[in-house]
Structure formats: structure tokens, C-alpha cells
Amino acid sequence: MKAKEVCDRLIEVLESKEYKYLRVNFANPDMVGHTGNIQSGVKAVLTCDECLKRLDEEVRKQKGILLVTADHGNVETMLDKLGKPMTSHTCNPVNLFIRDYDYKGEYVIDESVEHPGLANVTATYINLLGFEQPSFYKPSLIKFI
User: pTM for this structure?
Assistant: First the structure.
């Protein structure tokens, strides 16, 4: 897997300031999670942690916004209740982290969103880019004040 190489390239692209929005998928924890090998899972997570740290530093330099989430779990549950390898995706909730280095208090997390989930993330991205999401989208996880 090429997380470090992907991260290097992403930082190059961020430094170019050619794009307003970039999205990346670090697949290491997911792919390694399918093996059931805990030691490899730890290595995959640590690799992605280092990549996220580097990305966060670059986004901070540019006073940008970094969102981190996942579409499902996997590596966080590598053994079943009997101690056997669990190699499938999980249905565990995933977090959404927003690091906005130019935040001026213009929005807050919208606590009124019922059953927030992955379907709400796209509207959130769109709002953070300064646009209103289409009416047929699930609601954003932020509201402007």
C-alpha cells in the first residue's frame, strides 16, 4: 500500500494551491483489516496517523479545513467474541472531525440533525466550501449562525 506516497503527492498538490477541494482515501486500515492480522493493523493505523499529521500541518499552514471520516469500520474490530479473526467491515459508528484553521465562529455543529451519518457529510463539505447543498441532499452537519 502506498499511503506515504499518496500523502507526499497530496501535500505537493496542496502546496500548489491549484485546487480548492481535495479528497483522499487512505485504504491501509481497511485493506489490512480484512487480513485479521493485528500487528499489521496497528502498523496500518500508525502509518495513516503519520500521514494525517502531515496533512494537518499543511492545511494549518494554508489556514484551510481538514475533514477526516470513514465510510465504515474494519481495523478497530479484528477479532470476534471467540478470538477468531473478523475480516469483514463493521457497522460501528465513525466520527467526523473538522479542523478549520480559519474558523471565526460562523458555524456550529447542528445538533438537530436526526441520525447523522455518512449521507450528511457531502452536504457538510459543500457548505464548508461556501455553497448551499441541493434540496434533495441529506442535511448538513453544520449550521451557519
Answer: 0.89
